[in-house]
Design brief:
Blueprint: E1 2-8, H1 18-30, E2 33-39, H2 45-55, E3 59-64, H3 66-78, E4 85-89, H4 95-100, H5 106-114, E5 118-126, E6 129-131, E7 134-138, H6 143-146, H7 149-155, H8 157-167, E8 174-180, E9 183-195, E10 217-223, H9 227-239, E11 249-254, E12 256-261, E13 266-269, E14 272-276, E15 279-291
Parallel strand pairs: 1-2, 1-3, 3-4
Antiparallel strand pairs: 5-6, 5-15, 7-9, 7-13, 8-9, 8-12, 9-10, 10-11, 12-15, 13-14
Amino acid sequence: MKRYVLIYNPVSGHATFRHSLDTIIEAFQRRQTVLVPYRTSPGDDLRMADFIREVNPEGVLAAGGDGTLHEVVNVLMKDKLSLPIGIIGSGTSNDFATYLGVNNDLETYFDCIVDDISRPVDVGCANGEYFINVASAGALTSVAHEVDVRLKHAMGKMAYYLRGIGEIPKLHTLHLHIRADGVETETGAYLFVIVNSSVAGSMQNVAMDAEIDDGKLDLLVAKDSSLTEFMALAKDVVSGTIKPDEKNLLHIQAQSFIVEADEPTESDLDGERGPALPLHVETIKRAIRIYTMMEQGKS
């Protein structure tokens, strides 16, 4: 019988995944496979790695939001555990799962996992910490860390939006020094994001050219502009209608980035608190495998 470790976050989303746990275990039992659940808790990365080694599974399933997937990726990368990852998006934000479309039909997706249909995916590394989808810093990027847990459970994504609206009057710009594959750029910026896929912050088509297995990441900078222009840019980002020639958006695709700011600035990695700038970011090409739906597994 095949075995999989199911790593689940008991408080992700609306803290309701526990009600789905039995259904998921039953779904894999019907496929003559065994799920071994592992409940996450803060600071247990070493225990998680030891648990995975002891079970010796065919793959690892991450059930939670982007933060849970982020934790699993870091455990596998740092402990050199070469196992494919399945994503069961049950968090407030599930950007990478949304990009892959893996949770649109879970029964079909579970078939693909058992049939070992997967694809290689790039991983970013920022100051020694790994991220699967996005690294960011600047205005609004710390909102996820500052939303009250009770409010997030009650309102989901709306809690982020309300918190973000409250930050608008405080917006100010940073001066960034960027080195992308050795090419240097200076710019004022409200914020920047370095993305692997085209979905970030629950927004589609953030970077139209982004590919998750091309060995490159996409840097997007919301440049210094009037607040009215910034809000217009934000509207286009949210609606997925960014213009290629948008004057207030800097877009650079590269394998490596160094981003420095003129003031102390904290980063965010996949919605989790990240290292302070300067950020030294490298793309690790096709570093892990992700279980995907049938048509994606061919790529």
